[in-house]
């Protein structure tokens, strides 16, 4: 059996149907944003209707193929990879309903966040919180519990109040708190494992202006007063510059002040902050001892001053993530955040004293997310602190990151961490059973929604399937590659 479908014998009608949905160049190769994972789907298809998706699920079941819907491929892992049928969901991009009184908007699942902001803005509404970028599709963002920051604000999955999903048997299921409640709680963060989401309704709020203030602060002062810091504004995040104790704290509140756009400067932020910095990091690959000094310089030239700006919320939440990178991000109960950062600092400083030690890049990004009731959200039943670490890949070139990741993950795991689903991690079935009270329920529901494993790619097999389910897939020859470890490309 070949799940990538190289031996599938389609009928002439199926062949015509599939050919009609083809998109992209022949031999299309999927690459994620950071170019760290890639795959060559057998067919890259762009359906436009739910009927077409249901027919694709029927064909996949008949020929024992798998299907992977994607957003914009921003996940820094192989979660969106497949060598079988890959679905580009860009044609699912319409507004379906708007309720101004309840402040809700129903959209198709492929809508990108930047399109969604415009759709909402035109209707005088906005999302209550956002992550660093707005390139993602709304379905891709909720599939991995994409989050922003704020002790009273949860992740994007928790903003969904109703959705429609087509499961692995081709059933079209509507779910909400009032209908198919278990499916609703599971599907709001499903990693794409339960089916294809075609539309969803979001709880929004009236459009608002944010007033952001960014200040340089000392890491110890923040960690010693963390409970004051996290409640010092509606949305608080900070970036620590490792190898130093310098930190930048970003605070934002809803405001009625007149707009005052971000004080960005081409020279400082683009030429120096992006291009010069990338060149310096490239050179530091041959001389890593330069990295701590580079970090210090970068902090004092770009961040060592107070700045503030006022603008539409969606313009203020996002920020420039610079260039491709390896990233790792886990969420710990927020009360453990200071301990996690202290342990990480001890290790980074010890490495800096060792001539052969690892030199890490800035920043370590720290954000807070309110607890919710989405079964697989890292914020399920607990308010969390996400701590993100990063190693840039200047001009797509490799840098050593594995030792840093190992120590970071050990710290986060010991402190009760749950990994961000979009990012490559090493939590498997039994770890997840321990970490998530509802993981067993999710696994059971997955088997019901997808009895023939139509939505199982290597990531899903590796992380969500039990050892016996994995063994069944392997025995049937139903997996195309290793399912025991991920292989990030350097
Ligand atoms: C530069 C950068 C900045 C980022 N910033 C943040 C941040 O601030 N906060 C944060 O939490 N994350 C952040 N991320 C991670 C990002 O939000 C997630 O990886 C998100 O899942 C990407 O969305 P996507 O549309 O690219 O989805 P993809 O990466 O294309 O897919 C992700 C998953 O969604 C599933 N999926 C897509 N569409 C559907 C559908 N219609 N039905 C069912 N499943 C579907 C896919 O099958 C896959 O499993 C960032 C990533 C990058 C590269």
UniProtKB/TrEMBL annotation:
One of its GO terms (molecular function) is D-arabinono-1,4-lactone oxidase activity. InterPro entries: ALO_C, FAD-bd_PCMH, FAD-bd_PCMH-like_sf, FAD-bd_PCMH_sub1, FAD-bd_PCMH_sub2, FAD_lactone_oxidase-like, Oxid_FAD_bind_N, Oxy_OxRdtase_FAD_BS. Pathway: Cofactor biosynthesis; L-ascorbate biosynthesis; Cofactor biosynthesis; D-erythroascorbate biosynthesis; dehydro-D-arabinono-1,4-lactone from D-arabinose: step 2/2. Belongs to the oxygen-dependent FAD-linked oxidoreductase family. Its EC number is 1.1.3.37. Residues 37-207 form the FAD-binding PCMH-type domain. Keywords: Ascorbate biosynthesis, FAD, Flavoprotein, Membrane, Mitochondrion, Oxidoreductase. It comes from the Eukaryota. PANTHER family: D-ARABINONO-1,4-LACTONE OXIDASE, L-GULONOLACTONE OXIDASE. One of its GO terms (cellular component) is mitochondrial membrane. The keyword Transferase does not apply. This is D-arabinono-1,4-lactone oxidase. One of its GO terms (biological process) is L-ascorbic acid biosynthetic process. The keyword Ribonucleoprotein does not apply. Its cofactor is FAD. It is found in: Membrane; Mitochondrion membrane. It catalyses: D-arabinono-1,4-lactone + O2 = dehydro-D-arabinono-1,4-lactone + H2O2 + H(+). It comes from Linderina pennispora.
């Amino acid at each position: 059996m070949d799940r990538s479908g190289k031996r599938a014998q389609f009928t002439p009608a199926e062949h015509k149907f599939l050919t009609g949905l083809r998109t992209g160049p022949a031999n299309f190769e999927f690459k994620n944003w950071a170019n760290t994972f890639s795959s060559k789907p057998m067919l890259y298809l762009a359906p436009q209707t739910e009927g077409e998706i249901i027919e694709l699920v029927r064909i996949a079941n008949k020929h024992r193929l798998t299907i992977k819907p994607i957003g914009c491929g921003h996940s820094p892992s192989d979660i969106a990879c497949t060598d079988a049928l890959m679905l580009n969901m860009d044609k699912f991009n319409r507004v379906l309903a708007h309720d101004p009184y309840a402040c809700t908007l129903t959209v198709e699942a492929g809508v990108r966040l930047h399109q969604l902001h415009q759709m909402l803005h035109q209707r005088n509404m906005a999302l209550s919180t956002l992550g660093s970028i707005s390139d993602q599709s709304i379905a891709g963002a909720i599939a991995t519990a994409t989050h922003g920051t704020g002790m009273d604000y949860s992740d994007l999955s928790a903003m969904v109040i109703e959705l429609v999903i087509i499961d692995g048997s081709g059933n079209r299921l509507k779910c909400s708190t009032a209908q198919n409640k278990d499916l609703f709680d599971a599907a709001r963060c499903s990693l794409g494992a339960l089916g294809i989401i075609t539309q969803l309704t979001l709880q929004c709020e009236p459009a608002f202006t944010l007033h952001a203030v960014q200040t340089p602060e000392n890491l110890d002062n923040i960690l010693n007063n963390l409970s004051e810091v996290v409640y010092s504004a509606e949305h608080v995040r900070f970036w620590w510059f490792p190898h130093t104790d310098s930190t930048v704290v970003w605070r934002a509140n809803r405001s009625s002040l007149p707009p005052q756009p971000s004080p960005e400067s081409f020279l400082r932020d683009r030429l120096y902050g992006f291009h010069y910095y990338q060149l310096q990091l490239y050179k530091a690959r041959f001389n890593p001892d330069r990295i701590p000094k580079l970090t210090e310089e970068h902090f004092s030239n770009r961040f060592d001053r107070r700045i503030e700006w006022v603008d539409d919320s969606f313009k203020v939440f996002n920020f420039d993530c610079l260039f491709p990178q390896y990233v790792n991000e886990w969420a710990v109960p927020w009360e453990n955040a200071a301990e996690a950062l202290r342990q990480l600092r001890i290790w980074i400083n010890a490495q800096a004293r060792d001539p052969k030690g690892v030199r890490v890049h800035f920043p370590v990004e720290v954000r807070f997310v309110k607890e919710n009731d989405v079964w697989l959200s890292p914020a399920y039943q607990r308010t969390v602190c996400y701590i993100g670490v990063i190693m840039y890949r200047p001009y797509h070139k490799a840098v050593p990151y594995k030792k840093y990741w190992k120590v970071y993950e050990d710290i986060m795991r010991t402190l009760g961490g749950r990994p961000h689903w979009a990012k490559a991690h090493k939590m498997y079935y039994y770890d997840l059973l321990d970490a998530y009270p509802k993981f067993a329920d999710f696994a059971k529901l997955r088997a019901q929604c997808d009895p023939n494993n139509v939505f199982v790619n290597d990531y899903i097999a590796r992380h969500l399937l039990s050892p016996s389910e994995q063994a069944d897939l392997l025995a049937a020859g139903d997996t195309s590659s290793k399912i025991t470890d991920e292989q990030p490309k350097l």
